[in-house]
Recover the amino acids of this structure.
């Protein structure tokens, strides 16, 4: 269809030009009609005061109270036409701006939903197929202990991947329902170590360095929320870094706040996308050509959990390559 080939900006421009032209034409016609009414009223006054019994000339006519009232009425109508034209034009511009912004948001959301469906399909299909193959192999073949251990480790890796995916989906759904943290003493060092073990199951060449002083390892926060924060930040750093590249996790106390920093030496994030990466379902690149796994929920969950703790998260460039995510709670 032709309408599908017209861009949103082009369609908006056409509508705007047409409406401005229509309002302009309306204003001109109304202005002309006002002038015509004024001339007719002026002629009536001339006939009224220019008869054989009155004999008043044009100068005297324009000095009469009725003529002055006629002039004032015409100027009032002109000001009203001008004000209404400006007001309608502003309303039109604002309305088109709101519609255009809403339409763009819907286009972005539709694209994000499509990307999410593509990514979630891939995320579910791969581990399920792998688990099925593992179970079929174990049931149909006689294997030695080493082979069975390898298959079981592969199955455990895929099961862990599915578990993490389900937990992210559930947490993302809870965050949309005004999720609030339940503060309790949380051991960040233990959480980080558990996350590293989890990641090593999926990424055997993971190289994560943990720098968390014992004095600062325990904070008051929501345990499941902080686990999601650490897990997703570390996983994001590992996925977008070359295999075996070091990832650094450190925790410090600065001005009474806990600062958690995850830095990597990966591909980095363009400045134009540093804010967008925290949007729901957003992923850098095209889902059909992406090389890394993911659903676009990780950093969204991180930001929502951090903000629920009244904290903030920032991302900066690492030197010479990579990114640095800083969480303050």
């Amino acid at each position: 269809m032709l309408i599908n080939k017209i861009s949103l900006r082009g369609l908006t421009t056409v509508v705007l030009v047409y409406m401005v032209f229509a309002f302009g034409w309306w204003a001109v016609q109304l202005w002309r009609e006002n002038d015509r009414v004024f001339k007719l009223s002026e002629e009536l006054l001339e006939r009224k005061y220019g008869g054989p019994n009155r004999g008043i000339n044009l100068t005297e006519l324009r000095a009469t109270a009725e003529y002055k009232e006629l002039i004032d009425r015409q100027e009032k109508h002109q000001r009203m036409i001008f004000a209404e034209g400006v007001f309608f034009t502003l309303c039109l511009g604002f309305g088109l701006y709101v519609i255009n912004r809403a339409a763009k948001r819907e286009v972005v959301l539709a694209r994000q939903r499509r990307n999410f469906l593509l990514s979630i399909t891939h995320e579910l299909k791969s581990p399920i197929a792998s688990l099925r193959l593992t179970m079929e192999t174990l049931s149909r073949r006689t294997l030695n202990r080493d082979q069975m251990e390898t298959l079981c480790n592969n199955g455990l890796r895929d099961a862990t991947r599915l578990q993490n995916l389900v937990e992210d989906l559930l947490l993302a759904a809870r965050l949309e329902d005004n999720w609030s943290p339940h503060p309790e003493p949380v051991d960040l060092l233990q959480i980080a170590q558990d996350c590293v073990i989890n990641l090593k199951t999926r990424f055997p060449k993971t190289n994560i360095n943990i720098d968390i002083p014992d004095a600062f390892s325990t904070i008051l926060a929501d345990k499941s929320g902080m686990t999601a924060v650490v897990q997703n930040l570390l996983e994001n750093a590992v996925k977008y870094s070359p295999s075996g590249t070091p990832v650094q996790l450190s925790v410090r106390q600065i001005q009474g706040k806990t600062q958690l920093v995850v830095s990597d030496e990966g591909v980095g994030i363009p400045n134009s996308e540093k804010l967008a990466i925290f949007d729901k379902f957003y992923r850098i690149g095209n889902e059909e050509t992406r090389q890394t796994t993911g659903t676009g929920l990780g950093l969204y969950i991180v930001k929502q959990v951090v903000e629920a703790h009244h904290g903030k998260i920032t991302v900066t460039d690492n030197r010479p390559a990579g990114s640095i995510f800083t969480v303050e709670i």
User: Anything to note?
Assistant: The chain has three domains: 2-112, 114-176, 184-328. The helical segments are 2-5, 8-49, 58-62, 65-140, 145-176, 188-202, 223-239, 298-308.
